[in-house]
Amino acid sequence: MGGPSTIWKRRPDSRLVNPSLRQHNLDALALEHLNYHKIAASDLIGKGKKQVSMAQIAVVEVARYACEDADITFRLRNELQPKLDNGGLTDLFREVEIPLIFVLQDVEHAGVSLDDV
């Protein structure tokens, strides 16, 4: 299933705090909430026909990218959790959004592809 890192990595909290935000991906949220430009995956592995697997990238580069993702996820949690609390959205987050993550994860594992919008 997954634990707290899975829950926060999917960032449903961002959609509750600011549903009108156009993008809720990690890069966009880092810029919006932390004023931080993170390493784009495409900068690491390329795009289109020139895209390579992470396995083909130097371990030190992948480690830097992965550590940055973990750090930004943690920092965003610290930024967004108080906004959930102050907006009275914590119960909705815990009782609806978190259980829905696991339902959607099961649906995807069953072979149904969902957009990560």
Q: How would you describe the overall organization of this protein?
A:
This protein has helices spanning 4-9, 12-17, 26-34, 41-45, 59-86, 90-109. The chain has 6 helices and no strands. Helices cover 63% and strands 0% of the residues. The chain is globular. The longest helix has 28 residues, at 59-86. With 117 residues, it is mostly helical. It has one domain (10-109): Nucleotidyltransferase, domain 5 (2-Layer Sandwich), CATH 3.30.420.10.
The biggest sheet, with number of strands, parallel, antiparallel or mixed sense and barrel status, is: none
Order of helices and strands: HHHHHH
Structural class: mainly alpha
- How far the N terminus sits from the C terminus, by CA atoms, comes to 21 Å
CATH class, please?
A: Alpha Beta
Shape: globular
Number of helices: 6
Query: Which range does the strand content fall in?
Result: under 5%
Low-pLDDT residue intervals, each spanning 5 or more residues = 1-6
Helix content: 55-70%
Compose a concise summary of this entry.
The chain has helices spanning 4-9, 12-17, 26-34, 41-45, 59-86, 90-109.
Write the layout of secondary structure elements.
Blueprint: H1 4-9, H2 12-17, H3 26-34, H4 41-45, H5 59-86, H6 90-109
